[in-house]
Every structure is written in C-alpha cells, then in structure tokens.
Amino acid sequence: MTVPDTVLAELRTAAAAASDKLATNIEGYDVGERLGITDAFLVCSAPSERQIGAICEEIEKQLKTVHDSAPLRREGRDSGTWVLLDYGHMVVHVQHEQERAVYGLDRLYADVPKVKLNLPAAPPAV
Hints:
Elements: H1 5-20, E1 24-30, H2 32-35, E2 40-46, H3 49-67, E3 73-75, E4 82-86, E5 90-96, H4 97-103, H5 105-108, E6 114-115
Parallel strand pairs: 2-5
Antiparallel strand pairs: 1-2, 1-6, 3-4, 4-5
Helix pairs in contact: 1-3
C-alpha cells in the first residue's frame, strides 16, 4: 500500500466521522499509483441531501479538530447529491445512493487496493 501513515490516519478519521452520521457503503481506495495527484479516496453514500450535508460537516469538523486539516476545495454543496471534499492528499466523495450507482466510482477503481478503514462492524439489521 502506498498511502502514507499520516494520510491513512486522516482517511480513517473521515471514515469514522461519516459512519457516526450513518453514511453507508464506506470504502477507502489507494489511488496514489493510479492517479498521481492524490493518495487516497474515501467514498460513502447517504439516502438524502440533508444527510449528505451532515456527513460532510462532521467529516470537516473531525478532520479540523483531530488533524488540523481543512479542505482545499469543496465541490457540489449546492447540488447536494455528490459532494467532493479535496484535501490534496486525499479526496472525500459523499454521494447520494442513486448518484453512486450511476457514476460507479467503485467500478472505476475496482482494480486499486482498498484501504482498511478499521470501522466497527455494523449492527445486524432488525
């Protein structure tokens, strides 16, 4: 894996923040060798625009608090269906479930290594 330890720590913090706000299908990808412009992607989903906003706010808050890291750019806040938080060394994609199915980032990066995010196991469905 080529993701530096500092980036891995931030990626895991972002993943935990997304999980805390009930994001689904949270995946980390080591895209450094494939893209060369960033080390990692975090991709997660939510069923509504409001939840996407809450997830993004929590990710930004936790990364600022824990790592003193702020995004260089934010894209898609107005649309609310796909928000991209660009931290330079990693990019966070928070997508509406339908957008994720249509654009298929998981398919596009199926050939790169996944990053172990160390998230707690989801509770069983009732």
